[in-house]
Amino acid sequence: MSPDEFYTDKGEWLTLKQLRERDAQVFRKAGI
User: Fold this and answer.
1) What's the confidence (pLDDT) of residue 12?
2) Is 19 exposed, middle or buried, given 0-12, 13-18 or 19+ CB atoms closer than 10 A?
3) What is the domain count for the chain?
4) Range of the domain at 6
5) Residues 15 and 22: beta-carbon distance below 8 Å
6) How far apart are CA 5 and CA 8, in angstroms?
7) Following CA atoms 10, 18, 1, 30 in sequence, which dihedral angle do they give, to the nearest 10 degrees?
């Protein structure tokens, strides 16, 4: 994921849950 994908449309940081929902494969690879 690129840094700009860590924000919501409102410019707020995404929560870990939201990040997992967007790119679960990255979390699986990281073992999180």
Assistant:
1) 93
2) middle
3) 1
4) 1-32
5) no
6) 8
7) 150
Q: What does the DSSP 8-state code read for residue 22?
A: H
The residue assigned the tokens 């929902």 is 21
- Specify the amino acid at residue 11: G
What's the pLDDT at 2? 82
Q: SS3 for 6?
A: helix
Compute the half-sphere exposure of residue 26: CA atoms within 13 Å on the CB side of its CA: 10
Our CA angle for 29, 15, 32, nearest 5°, is: 25
Predicted confidence (pLDDT) per residue in 1-32, tens digit: 788 888 888 999 999 898 888 888 887 888 87
Structure tokens at 28: 């699986």
